[in-house]
Every structure is written in C-alpha cells, then in structure tokens.
Amino acid sequence: MRSIQQPQKPNAGNLLPASLADTELDHIERMIQFVTRTQGAGSPRGIDAGYWNKRLRALEQTYDLVATQRQRMARLFEMLERGKHDRQGGTVETATAAWCAL
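Predicted structure:
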C-alpha cells in the first residue's frame, strides 16, 4: 500500500528571510490598491481580490516576516475585506476604526 505524503507546514527553520519579502509585498500592495480603486469597473483579466488574498496568504506562509511586514499585511487584508463589503453595499468596521472610536 502506497502512502500519500502530506505537504509539510512551514516552520521558522525553512522560511525564507524577511528581507526577500519586501519586493513581493510592495508589488502586492500596489496591485491591491489598484484593484480596490477600480472595483466598480471590474477587475482586469479575472485577477480579483480573491487572487490577491491568496497571494498574501502564500507570502505569509513562505517568508519569516518581521512585525512591520505583518502590519502591512494586516492593512492589505483589511483593504481587501473593505473592498469586498463596499461592492456588496455594506460597511465594515475594522479593528483599527473600532479602537479609534474608544
């Protein structure tokens, strides 16, 4: 009987260094800003918010990110979520907005 190998979950020992993530994070950040600005006109060639969400998740699992990079990613996830709710006509109260309201 042949066993099926499960993909290994990354740990700090096999993650890429944070310094290599900045270029990819910059690109994803610019594209998310573009996608959220042009959401009313539709996303070009099927590259929508879901695609960029997956790219962010992959980056998160591939690199050993530092705190500032994780904060940038949190803002980008928030932008994607806000854009999703804006398209549905709702509003989103983010954790940051809730904290500022205190």
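Summary: Residues 67-87 form the longest helix (21 residues).
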